[in-house]
Each structure stands twice: as C-alpha cells, then as structure tokens.
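## retry 2 of 3
previous attempt timed out at serialization; input unchanged, resubmitting
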Amino acid sequence: MDYKLNTKHVKDFLKSKEFTRLSANQQKHADNILSRFNHYMEIDHQLDDQHWNGEAVAQNMVSEFIATREVDNKFGVAAPSVLNAYVKFLKLSNEQEILVTLNKRENIFRMQRSRLLGMNIDDFSTMVDQMIADDEWGPLERETREWVEALEKKDYFQKIPMDNSSKAVAINIFVEYVVDWSSTNVNNWPTNAIQFVVSYSLLLHPELDDRDLKYIVPVIKALFQYLFEIEQIDARHLETYNQALDQLAPFVVAMLKYTFADREVMILANYVKSNHSQQQTPEQIDAWIATHPQEVDSMLIRLEPWRNDDTYDIQEDLEGEFSIIDVVERRDAREQQGKFSKQHQGNVIPFSQKKRNKKKKNKRKK
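## retry succeeded, writing output
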C-alpha cells in the first residue's frame, strides 16, 4: 500500500474536471472529506485509495469519518457526492462496485446524519445496515433496477459506447426526475417533462460527465424501446417520446460545447427566457437574475433537484456565478478563434518545411 500517493491523488482531484462539477458546498469540504476518508480507510482497513472495495467503503461511511462532532452537517451532506466524484476520478477497476455501494447508502446516510452525533458509532452502523436490509429499494427504484438489468442484456443497449454504471445512473436519475414531474405510470409521462429532464437536469447532474452526456439521448431511447418491448408503452407513445428526444439532440450537442459552469449559466438563461418572455437579451436576463434571487433559487432547485437540502446554502453557490454576458463573450471568442484557425490552417508553413526552403535558397545563392 502506498499511502503517500493518497495525498497526491487528492491534490490532483482538486484540479480535475470532476471537481469543477461539484457544488460550492461540496468543493469547500472536498479536501477535508477525502483526507478524513483516506485516513480511516488506512487505519481501519489498511487500504490506500487504489485498493478500495465495496465492503470497506460501506463500513467507512459509518465510521469515525463521519460520526464525530469535528465535522458539521454541510460536511455530511457533501460527503456522498464528493466520494462519488473521487471514485470516478481514480478510474478504479472496481469502480462500479464502489459506486453502487455509495449510491445504496446515500439517501439513508443523509437522512440519518443529524441523528448520529448522539449515538455510539457501532449502534449507528447497525441502524444504517438494518434500514438498508429492511427496505434497500423502494418500489420505483426496484422497478428501475429491473429495467436496467434487462437492458444490459440487449445488444442495442450494449452498443452505446458508455459504461454500464453510467448508463444505470443516467436511467435512474431520468426516471426519478420525470416521475417527480408527472406520474409513476410511464404511459402518463408528458413529453415536456421528458424534455425538461434530458435537456436541463441531466446535463447539469454532478454524477454524469461530458463523455456520458454525449450518449444520453441514445440511452433514454433504448429505455423506451425496452418499455415498448415489454408492453409498458405502446407504439404511439414510443414514437412520441422518440420524436421529443430527437428534437433535443441538437440542444444537447450545443450545450456540451460549454464548460460545466458556463452550461449551467446558459441553461438557467434558457429557463428564464421560457418563463419570462420579456427577458430575452443577455443584458435583460443578467439584470433579472440580479434582482430576483428568490425566483432564481426556485428555478435552480427545479433544474437541479439535488440542491434542495435544508443545509444547502444556495446563495453561497450563486455569488458571482451567473453572468450571461460573460458566457456569451467567451463563446463568441471561442468561435472567432475557431474561424481564424480554419482560415489560416493551410497558410502556415511547418517549421521543418521552412528549414528545407531556406536550405534550397542558400544552395541557389552558391
């Protein structure tokens, strides 16, 4: 075990793309979360971060890593998402096993976090294990898991170039948020709910990165194809849902050209425009956002439901972030640079060619 490498990995993570996708609260606590988690993995399980396994991670989640007055509730709220992002950053061979462990415990972990401080650590660990054993999956989660397991055996699902754990995460998030919008009955899912979740919430979700999001429309289409095959939806629904997804594809591609932070701004701007028709220009939208903080809070919680937590300081996350004008200027500058590069690509003489030309010229002089 090389425990010294843990420190390097954490430092590298704090500069990584995965880190930038975390919220302000998660970024604020990330270093402390990972340092504590690695510390207790070392002393309790004798594992560095290259040798984590599902069982050790599960036990560490309810150890002194979290069951202490040394950390506050915001630390506890941030911990599951930070650990999830760190595991993806590490690219471990057993990544899926660990992510499943984290996801299974996350909701119960967050719900019980406020109660654990007055409890003995062993009692808290036993309580969490019992809750998971009693009701590991709710009805919706259980049905979604069955869909994913069946889809993983389908050729059309396997051909999508995205790892199975990310496909499962995408489908679970999609189903959960569409149901929040509408109904548990897939036949009653309105197309506007499907479009909202795919074009907004999934594009902003911290558990999905850009390489996953490129294939988000094919993944959701595959889900609908399977639901048609098992007669949960009929041909009319399949066609309607696929048409709605096809309409979204260009928007998804366009949004993936932005950094995550800029994408969040542009999606918020789009949402403001769709809800307030008089706010259309970047200047108007910036002014509206600056003067309507409460409505912006509500919009962001609708766009990003994971923000909706009692201990989550949304204003802390908003400070100085949302300027549509700045994003548009950066986009225009990138497009201008791209045009310039294309225009002059054939006019630039490689250095090696310049040297050969100079040699020829010198020979002619002689």
